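Hey, resending since the last one bounced:
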Amino acid sequence: MKKFLMMTLCVLAMCAMSRPSLAEQFDTSGADKLGFKLCLQAWTNNKKTLYETLELAQQIGVHYVEMYPGQPLGGDLKGKTGPGMSDEEIAKTLEKAKSCDVTLITCGVMGIPSDEAGARATFDWAKKMGLKYINSEPDPKAFEMIDKIAGEYGIMVGIHDHPKPSRYWNPEYAYSLTKPCKNIGLCADTGHWKRSGMNPVDVVNTYGDDIVDSHFKDLVPGGGSANLHDVIWGTGESNAAGVLAALKAKGFKGPLSIEYEWKWEVEDLRKCAEFFYAECNKLAKE
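The structure tokens again:
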């Protein structure tokens, strides 16, 4: 009996080791072909640490995370996300991300100082973190300087839109500033466009050639900012499938972040990822 029990435990252990991870349960081939990279915006999990957010991304099957500045790092680290991180904190955070099969690809919304020394300090940190994008709402007068530095570092800057009356709520205005730049584009917060009274599909169709990053949302009335709140992608009033199709039509390639700012369960976030990958697989065949 003892021998049988030991064999049973061994078999169960082997099954657990061979069981595919949550991430492997998604067919990501369509997203890979389109060049869409699904991220978890850490603000979704802003009551927890970055370490816990990396674990959440792994749990829901997402391989990329967008950090936000000021989130406690977690583990044995006392610092917070941002340019103030020490080299040790950076190294340990990157090690944690690797252990979760997650890449830290972008950070936002974060400030970029208007003086060159301050801006370079921000890009120095981003480079050490391995980031490819920074999402920000900098002073319009600093665009020329930021564009130059971003090119030197090989990091794209996305101009994020908060709802009106914020500085960049109007995509026409933001586009007029980003279009002349080589290394600055739009960070399309599709939910905030809707909160500002716009149709996200129409905005992408008009200005999508300059979108480099996205905070992706699907919203319904009944609470939250501007009385609109997040729901599982594909179940709201934002035409999430249409936005993805419009991004494909515009040749977008880059990160799209789950930024879920309403009451959520882990399964809600997984269902967003499931919808995203299913839609991408359809789009990749068209």
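Residues 1-23 have pLDDT under 50 and may be disordered.

Sorry for the duplicate.
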